[in-house]
Amino acid sequence: IANTHGQGGAALAAIATGTTAWTNGLADVTAARSLSVAAGATCQHIARVLVHGETDDANQNANYATALSTFNDNWNTEVASIQGALPGGARIRDFITQISAWNSAPSRPTAIVALQQLTASRDDPDIILVGPTYQYAYFSDRLHYSNTGHRHIGEKIGEVIYRVLRLGEDWRPLEPNFILANNNNIDIYLHVPDPPIVVDTHC
Fold this sequence. Notes:
Strand content: 5-15%
Number of strands: 5
Number of helices: 5
Strand order of the largest sheet: 1-2-3
């Protein structure tokens, strides 16, 4: 069962505990559980997708990584009160995408939230960074994805959810392991989930 209870253009605080979006999400979990019980089936909420961050970046939210972890902790607590604990002490995982639209505003030269999304995924095992989004199709505003961009993002999110929850992989996206600078030379050592890395020379 998939559902959506997001809110466009909202900061994380506007969709967190106690907000309309949050309450709607819990109502969806409750309805799904009720339907499954009535059908004699089992339904457990195990994953959530978060395509988010542009508004917090515009607000230069320096506490976004911490807020993401709190967002996940609170969701786990409230959903457990509806459906009970997941088997084996498992927790609901948040699959997040990393914003790239910070470059739509020249006044914000640093991707504050993009960096914090990477930090959150490294510090909190329940936050899975699907990957960056610069490579997808945008509208001319360089802020909103086109229908093609949304479709490709959805395909990638689905792939990562499958690899993490079904195959048990410890997913990390294409990202730098470390960077060395020596005078005019910069060496970037990358983690590549599906090697070899391919450089697109036609874009």
